[in-house]
Amino acid sequence: MTDKILLTERHGDTLRVIINRPDKRNALSLELLDRIGSTFAEHATDATLKCAVLTASGDRCFAAGGDLLELEAVRSEADTLAMSRRARAALQQVRQFPVPVIAALNGHALGGGAELAMACDLRIATARTELGFLQARLNITTAWGGGIDLLAALGSARGLQILLEARRIPADEALQLGLVQRVCTGDETLTECTAAFVQPFLDRPVQVLRAYKALTLASRRVLHERLVTQEEQGFTTTWIHADHWAAAEKTLAPR
Fold this sequence. Notes:
Blueprint: E1 6-11, E2 14-19, H1 30-43, E3 51-56, E4 61-63, H2 68-71, H3 77-95, E5 101-105, E6 108-110, H4 112-119, E7 122-125, E8 130-132, H5 146-154, H6 156-165, E9 168-170, H7 171-177, E10 182-183, H8 190-202, H9 206-239, H10 242-252
Parallel strand pairs: 2-3, 3-5, 4-6, 5-7, 6-8, 7-10
Antiparallel strand pairs: 1-2, 8-9
């Protein structure tokens, strides 16, 4: 199926979902997030699937975060919480998909894009990809569950360090940290790298894949249920604070 901002393809036992806003650095508008969520929800009932791959068009960005021009209108506490929950619901469809979801990072995953990448079960990156939880540069915190996923992956101390540093992490360092599981090498394309990475999964019976995914999902669900309120409160407080809008104005000024 073809859509202006989201593409879906079926290749054998694999579903491919492709973010398609390369001219906007694949920024995550609320409409795009809704469509990502609805696409994963729609295909969750397909009992023949063995895995899903989430990637994006172009070679610059997997997703450059939320669409700041759109989100600039979100000012009140109620609207901020509603926006956070709307986007979180979309990412939750990715997290709870019944088979492994692999993020094929064709470019940088920044801000909300890093949260989307971490919502996936596993990640592959090109050598030039950078992963960046840059929210603190805008004087805000994670909004869509990405901070929780990062702490689960790295532990509280290392996760806190990454969140506060708010820097771009090169692919090789992300591999060492365990934030990505494979980095394309040499002349290997992302498509080739992804195919090689996914093949062992496709060799397994579908019931094995789904049982292991259900186990990992149960573990993730417990942590998210414990921490979601804390993350929402932190994001809402920081988003409506004047320090955030001062930083946002500087970011948006060149545009």
